[in-house]
Amino acid sequence: MARVNNPKADEILDKQFDVLDHGFVRLIDYMGSDAAIVQAARVSYGDGTRKVSEDRGLIRYLMRHRHTSPFEMVEFKFHVKLPIFVARQWIRHRTANVNELSGRYSVMKEEFYIPDEDNIRPQSSDNKQGRASEMAPEDLCRRFVEYLNKSQKDAYSNYQKFVGDDLAREIARINLPLSLYTEWYWKIDLHNLFHFLRLRLDPHAQLEIRLYAEIMADMVKTVCPVACEAFEDFILNSVTFSGPELEILKDSLSTFKLKKDELVARGLSSGEATELIRKLKRLK
Amino acid sequence: MARVNNPKADEILDKQFDVLDHGFVRLIDYMGSDAAIVQAARVSYGDGTRKVSEDRGLIRYLMRHRHTSPFEMVEFKFHVKLPIFVARQWIRHRTANVNELSGRYSVMKEEFYIPDEDNIRPQSSDNKQGRASEMAPEDLCRRFVEYLNKSQKDAYSNYQKFVGDDLAREIARINLPLSLYTEWYWKIDLHNLFHFLRLRLDPHAQLEIRLYAEIMADMVKTVCPVACEAFEDFILNSVTFSGPELEILKDSLSTFKLKKDELVARGLSSGEATELIRKLKRLK
Amino acid sequence: MARVNNPKADEILDKQFDVLDHGFVRLIDYMGSDAAIVQAARVSYGDGTRKVSEDRGLIRYLMRHRHTSPFEMVEFKFHVKLPIFVARQWIRHRTANVNELSGRYSVMKEEFYIPDEDNIRPQSSDNKQGRASEMAPEDLCRRFVEYLNKSQKDAYSNYQKFVGDDLAREIARINLPLSLYTEWYWKIDLHNLFHFLRLRLDPHAQLEIRLYAEIMADMVKTVCPVACEAFEDFILNSVTFSGPELEILKDSLSTFKLKKDELVARGLSSGEATELIRKLKRLK
Amino acid sequence: MARVNNPKADEILDKQFDVLDHGFVRLIDYMGSDAAIVQAARVSYGDGTRKVSEDRGLIRYLMRHRHTSPFEMVEFKFHVKLPIFVARQWIRHRTANVNELSGRYSVMKEEFYIPDEDNIRPQSSDNKQGRASEMAPEDLCRRFVEYLNKSQKDAYSNYQKFVGDDLAREIARINLPLSLYTEWYWKIDLHNLFHFLRLRLDPHAQLEIRLYAEIMADMVKTVCPVACEAFEDFILNSVTFSGPELEILKDSLSTFKLKKDELVARGLSSGEATELIRKLKRLK
Predict the structure, then answer these.
(1) CATH number of the domain at D1-113+183-238, please?
(2) Which of A135, A256, B169, D100 is the most buried (most CB within 10 A)?
(3) ipTM here
């Protein structure tokens, strides 16, 4: 039976976890658990793997070999409040279901994002898309925050005035800035959520979306701890070397000496140990 | 809060509902309810529609106007056992998650579909893809069932023999017939499930898949009765007239006399009544 | 052979069609034609339908019966420049491929949308999401345009200044308004494009996205004229009556007298005529 | 302009490439080229990368960093004839468009797959899903081929007889074996095609689908040679080490001595060299 009680997960249901200055994530509902992954995998792979003690091993095997479909059997639904420029990055993940607050139906609230001064950084010099690791001059930060404050207030008071003058909402809102907060319900399966997390936990992702991803990663861990551990070991903390790189690394790796039982002693499962030996052999 | 208790739905969880001679459908899990549809819609459409008494009206409005995304917020997971020729039609619905029994990993069981004699029919003369409404000659039915029985037994005993001779399972199975049963876990959201049901409840769908669809439609009704009623009224029992047809029907429809309050008296909601009047006006 | 020359379509390739004040649509590439739809359908339906003269009939049959997969065999790629608030509606169509200009990599250009005064309207009183059909007071229009002009200039000059001060682009841009233009390549198959067009040509769609849809509908017509005609007849100009509505309309429709040959004389194909008679019979 | 002439690709259009005993793949149409990938990427990444000489570098960068969306801008349409058991594996790739021959509409042809004796192998002992590398006993091969031949003939002659007796095609076909050939049109974008190829070129994929994948990989190379080279270097020939594996490999890799210019001298691009150094540094 895959429908198991998960009191820890139920405890965070509907709880609001704050992100940025006015944003949040709430886990509204979920379906499934580590057990649901195992259950679905076993319909494919049959009876050979039935011992309960082997559940963790099976989940790790599935993750390692990118057998992704059993992870699709777990589903999550979040309620998220987020600035529009973050929403525009987020929505690029197409295999998900969304219901967003509509500025055509509703009057938007006066809630805008202003970054912490700590997060206002210069353009990165080695990363075309990101911000630098060093701080921006204090004066620049101060001026930017002042500007944001003032222009957001202006934009909102004008919006409010024009809506008050009975201008259609769908037109009145077009000059609101990308820092405006919006809200949505967002539903996604675990496989696609892992894909989202891999991209959005990456140091190259924009800081603001990364902060959402970090909180969601913790929530997911409450629902599926074993799958999340496998995701960290085999995806997040993995490194991929290309064919040309391996040509060059070959010599270093050929000095590798450990045998299977030593690998197991150092923490790999028997299956992982065999696979590592096989990978290294392929390089020779 | 969208996570409501639904004892009626929980009662059928994991219960096996038989279909065909060896097939079944089981509802393994579900997420959401009519309330989850309303909850997601309200994040889009805002506060104007908040009265609880208006939930049914809102769901019907969403269905009528093909605002489909809130229906995606409800999710179903089924365990299904079905003949391979049915599975091949079913899998064409791509927006779903599947884990199927693999004939490469597992030895298939000796379970084949044999239609009831009542369902063994001649080719339809007016429907290129289907069977006729009249019965096939008794003798033909008998011969076909005999043939199926014999050839399925032959196929399975040969399969078993070759697997016993250690022939690879993935090769040994290639001569098993399309009437062989397979199994899968199948997960889908309510919007896409309605799409599946609309196509597979249709009289043009092959009878065998229709029988699965009928049972699943009942299950879905237990989870989301209001959405299902709307689906029946606005999709299943609707009729669409094309532009050229309406040109021709115009005269008949222009004789239509009822006013809004009479329409409401005959069962339409106020919104539906207004929309019907508008539709008819468009035709004039 | 489905790869046919289409000089009319090739003529518009890469041509810029203006939309709004600074936007455009360009058809960058396409794959397939009416012939490609027919070719794919015939692999399913076999040899019965082979006469060339029957191509139009087949396409219309497919559309009428929502056999949508052959329409997926035609593909379009557009280059579009559009305000961000339009892009946010557009991107909800998930079954498409997108590459958008990134404000993290590039400095955005000073191009903002300002509606024609003619399109600045009051809130609609009977349509929660749209604008009214009557004009807004002249003074309101003038004030709104003035405001847009001024605030867009302010926003851009501040953006430019902060980027000049070496503030990270991904932060500097967060206060740019939703009226800012962005660009993308957008690729979609004909079935999903028809779905997009049906929703975005609808009078309830926001005017600004409708103007894009109208131009794209014309482009598609150049590539697949027969499919587009079928789309208009059976989707755009169709009317769907719900089960409860049909209960009420039944009496009017039962007065309908025309026979099959009269229906054909009035322009329906033989198949359509049969189907109309069948639909009306169902209602009795 | 992304619409470039590609005479080599046009030459193979519609050509039939044989696979297995009666199967084939034909490239029916394609849209785009390496240039289309570059064109779409540049709308995102802006003007910094404009030199034509840098096209190859950009494509390799995109592949290396899993910036997958520009690869979605190229589209392929194939006509494939394949045994049903292969079709059942193939159809699991959901992000594609399909039109398949229907056994409800058409009478199936007498074409069945019989493996070469060379490919009839015992069950693999170390791979639960596959066949062994050693040969099966000659006698077993012979018996299996004889059995296939005989039972396929029986199945088809019975099918033909029952269809001749006017039994509905959709019922008569249910006892045809999985070795029966079917046909379809299959359309997919390059990103998803690479995903298909990665899984289906893998030694763990069933031999029969692998043979299709190999021929398609060659076709794709004709259309997009640079993207395919990048796919081979960064995906097919790459090796991924998990977090726990890297813990163990760290010591070996820490002996790595080459500097950036030496890496470039050994064939890496400047960007790849920097990234390799960074990856290795991360491990320390």
Answers:
(1) 3.30.1360.170
(2) B169
(3) 0.94
